[in-house]
Automatic annotation (TrEMBL):
This is Bacteriophage protein.
Length: 134
């Protein structure tokens, strides 16, 4: 395709919510941190290095017998997740750094020796958890 030589009415899409196809048999709870697997199917966040952050599940779903039989509404934004403990605990010093998924509700400061996928950017830390922007 060649460069524009006249004005173009380029379509615009809000990036606050998506309906993603779900991995076969995956169980995603409402409010869960959700990621896309290597094939682009929605799965609950877990320890893995092949996942891409997507957001928070707006509804509970269970994947069908085949990949993509069911879809899930995913919301993007800044969400508060549970904080890890010990050396993986996130502190205010980590604000602006990547957060790493431990499970579908917990984030850590480290990639767990290259075993975890990044799930977003740490925006704040409070007594209830860690605010992560996806």
């Amino acid at each position: 395709m060649a460069a524009l030589t006249t004005d173009r009415d380029t379509p615009r899409r809000e990036v606050t919510a998506f309906d993603d196809p779900v991995k076969a048999a995956a169980v995603i709870h409402a409010g869960a941190m959700t990621m896309l697997d290597a094939d682009g199917y929605a799965v609950p966040a877990a320890v893995a290095t092949t996942l891409t952050p997507r957001g928070r599940a707006a509804e509970a779903v269970t994947g069908g017998p085949a990949d993509g039989d069911v879809t899930v509404r995913i919301e993007r934004g800044c969400f508060r997740w549970a904080n890890s403990a010990g050396g993986d605990a996130i502190t205010r010093a980590h604000i602006g750094s990547p957060a790493y998924a431990v499970d579908d509700q917990t984030v850590a400061a480290t990639d767990g020796t290259s075993t975890r996928s990044a799930c977003g950017t740490i925006r704040d830390v409070d007594a209830q958890g860690v605010w992560v922007e996806v």
